[in-house]
Amino acid sequence: QKKIHEPKDFNIEKIRPPADPATYDRELASIVSLVRNREMHALESSMREFEEKFNSKFLYPYTFLNEQPFSQKFKEKMRSLTKAEVNFVHIPNEVWRKPFDIDTLKEKEGIQSLLDDGVGYSDMESYHNMCRFYSGAFYKLPELQKYRYYMRMEPDVKFFTDINYDIFKYLSGTGKVYGFTVALYDSPQSVRTLFPETIKFLNEGNNSEYLHPRGAFQFTTESRQHPEIHKITGGYSTCHFWSNFEIADMDFFRGEAYSKYFEYLDSTGKFYYERWGDAPVHSLGLSLFADKLKIHWFQDIGYFHFPYYNCPNNEQTKGCNNGQFDEFNDLANQNCMGTWLHFETGVKDVY
Ligand code: GDP
Ligand code: MN
Question: How does pLDDT run across 320-351, given as a tens digit for each residue?
């Protein structure tokens, strides 16, 4: 078995951990986590692993976001876990909450139909708020304006391989705009009209000029593994980068193409009438408006968020069980990594 040595397209020796992280010349980047007070222990677990594997070597600042005030206990706990700078940001109501123009009758009908389809979290308004916030609001917060790059971190995730280079400098050094670890199919019933609305957006005015000639179009539209999905989504494969781990150049989201795209999607109200996730919204935006060569699979980062792993071939990954994707469950059926590799990167031996 060959071990992987990633990344291959950059002189990694230039971005190794510094001798003294305290005086290190970092990228303008922050680790960002939207989180609730009650998730303190779950987040502590994620942070301990991330500090050990990466951040104690680089000391990138953390930004914790919440629409409720963080408790003193929560703040002290987070500060105790790192030597890096730690910031706590309160999300204003007008950013977080459901907009006033959402039609409550349409919303009720939408939720009922989502519940009938068994779409998770569909009757939790807070979950809809979260998806809308991560789709189109976090990168506009005044407290994040000083940063160009961000990495998203969630409670209860695992990082189980050493990361011995600066992942933010890797993005800036290569000019890449986005990095992910896991790519999946989504529940098609949660995004019934996301793709048709996307097409409507592209057909308005000169919006089609935002399309990148080297977009990841097949990732968003292929139907080889699940031909039935197109009937529900109007042509969207539902393939998406799983956004609970993502590293992004926020200037992509702040740019004209994605900003106008989000504004259009938001104007439909369907973050509430349907249950569009931030992952498919980010992924469609990236696939349409970014150069696919600027989207990076962090193959080398061992990562787990229930129930999926990114499991590199590495001596540190013995505990990470690729058997999760096996004949006894249908998780493999939900893996879209093959589609990404085969259609968008030119790797031809995955099927
Ligand atoms: P899942 O991964 O789709 O099951 O969703 P999660 O429950 O993990 O939520 C995604 C992220 O948003 C996590 O970091 C949560 O802590 C956070 N989150 C979800 N809902 C809320 C909320 O109402 N308030 C706050 N402050 N954070 C939330
Ligand atoms: Mn989660």
Answer: 655 454 445 567 788 999 899 999 997 765 54
The pLDDT, as a whole number, for residue 312 is 85
Query: What does the DSSP assignment read for 69-121?
Result: PPPHHHHHHHHHT-SS-EEEEEPPHHHHSPPTT--HHHHHHHHHHHHHTT-TT
Please tell me the residue having the least CA distance from ligand 1 atom 16: 35
Q: How many domains does the chain have?
A: 1
Q: Is 39 in the pocket of ligand 1 (CB under 6 A)?
A: yes
**Across the strands, what pairs with 309?**
304
Domain assignment present for 10? no
DSSP H or E stretch at residue 31: strand 29-34
**Structural domain that includes position 59:** 27-345
Chain CA centroid to CA 347, Å: 23
98 lines ligand 1 (CB under 6 A): no
How far is the C-alpha of 9 from the C-alpha of 259, rounded, in Å? 30
Given the residues 222, 246, 274, 344, select the one marked as catalytic: 246
| Contact (CB, 8 A) for 222 and 182 | no
- Residue 1 resides in a domain: no
Cα–Cα nearest to 320, from 187, 178, 182: 182
CB 324 within 8 A of CB 310: no
- Contact status, residue 31 vs residue 167, Cβ threshold 8 Å: no
As a whole number of angstroms, the distance between CA 275 and CA 119 comes to 8
Residue with tokens 């990344």: 7
Q: What is the edge-to-edge ordering of all strands in the sheet holding 303-305?
A: 158-159, 303-305, 308-310
Amino acid at 168: F
Tens of pLDDT, residue by residue over 14-72, are 999 999 999 999 999 999 999 999 999 999 999 999 999 999 999 999 999 999 999 99
* Amino acid at site 55: N
Q: Does 33 map to a domain?
A: yes
Active site residue 246: yes
Asked, for residue 6, whether it belongs to a domain, the answer is no
Q: Where are the beta strands (DSSP E) in 156-223?
A: 158-159, 178-180, 183-184
187 touches ligand 1 (CB under 6 Å) = no
